[in-house]
Every structure is written in structure tokens, then in C-alpha cells.
């Protein structure tokens, strides 16, 4: 699944939990996002947080490694992915063009980031914060 779909799936899972009044996922995301922001790109906390939204090493690199000459919007979207969980994970930001299909690459000569799940040894899942190791399967 692509990065954008993973973001939307997590958002849907948080909203689904909030129907019952509380969202442990929303709390876990907030708890992971604050150290990610404070640690910044390149920190273990940032990598751990971003691992929540990816299914393969290429996607993780897209969210955690700034490449020379990459479009500014990639950095902007990375920042929003972190700040949204701090501000209010229940907002529809991922659905309202703050983070859009460009996060998956393929624009202006950028390579498309593969959307296939490719974590056979569970290395990406192992990077995720303890409360976010398993991402709920919610249809979007």
C-alpha cells in the first residue's frame, strides 16, 4: 500500500476508535510524534514514527531521508505528517490536500515509491513505537 493510503488507513482507524469516545491509536501517535518533532529528521524517534506509515524500505526512505534537489513539498508533507498527530490526529488533513498523492513520488521526474509490502523480516515493523507495532486493518 502507498504512503498516502497508509496515512488514510491510520486516520480512519483513529476515527473508528473515537466513535467509542477514546482513541488509543490517536494517543499513541501523539506520544510518538512529539519526540519525532523534538528529535528531528535523522533521529531514531523520527524514523520510528514514520515507520508507522510505511510498508517497505523505499517508503521509509521517502519519509526519513532528504535527498538533494527534492521538491520542497516533500519536506512540507513530512513536517505535516508529524505535526498533525501533535495538533489533532482526528482532523481530515490527510484528506484535504495537506498530504496528497505527491508523497508517493512520480511527479516532475521523481521516481514512484513502490507500494508493495516488503518487510519479510519485520525490520520496519520493529522500528515502530511499541503501541503502534500492529496497524489496524481499516478499509478506506
What structural keywords apply?
single chain
Walk me through the structure:
With 140 residues, the chain is an all-alpha fold. The protein has one domain. 49% of the residues lie in helices and 0% in strands. It has 6 helices and no strands. The relative contact order is 0.23.
Short description:
The protein is mainly alpha-helical and 140 residues long. It has six helices and no strands. Helix 2 packs antiparallel against helix 3 (44-51) and helix 2 (24-39) crosses helix 5.
- SS-based class: mainly alpha
Main sheet characteristics: none
Distance between the termini: 12 Å
Question: Overall mean pLDDT score?
Answer: 87
Shape: globular
Q: What string gives the helices and strands in order?
A: HHHHHH
Q: Quote the beta fraction.
A: under 5%
The count of strands amounts to 0
* Count of spatially separate domains: 1
Radius of gyration: 14 Å
User: Unreliable segments (pLDDT under 50, ≥5 consecutive)?
Assistant: none
Amino acid at each position: 500500500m502507498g504512503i498516502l493510503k497508509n496515512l488514510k488507513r491510520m486516520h480512519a482507524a483513529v476515527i473508528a476508535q473515537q466513535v467509542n469516545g477514546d482513541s488509543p491509536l490517536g494517543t499513541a501517535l501523539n506520544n510518538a510524534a512529539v519526540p519525532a518533532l523534538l528529535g528531528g529528521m535523522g533521529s531514531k524517534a523520527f524514523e520510528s514514527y514514520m515507520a508507522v506509515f510505511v510498508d517497505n524500505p523505499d517508503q521509509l526512505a521517502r519519509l526519513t531521508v532528504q535527498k538533494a534537489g527534492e521538491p520542497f513539498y516533500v519536506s512540507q508533507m513530512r513536517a505535516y505528517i508529524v505535526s498533525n498527530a501533535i495538533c489533532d490526529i482526528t482532523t481530515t488533513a490527510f484528506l484535504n490536500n495537506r498530504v496528497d498523492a505527491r508523497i508517493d513520488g512520480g511527479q516532475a521526474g521523481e521516481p514512484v515509491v513502490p507500494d508493495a509490502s516488503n518487510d519479510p523480516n519485520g525490520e520496519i515493523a520493529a522500528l515502530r513505537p511499541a503501541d503502534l507495532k500492529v496497524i489496524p486493518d481499516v478499509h478506506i
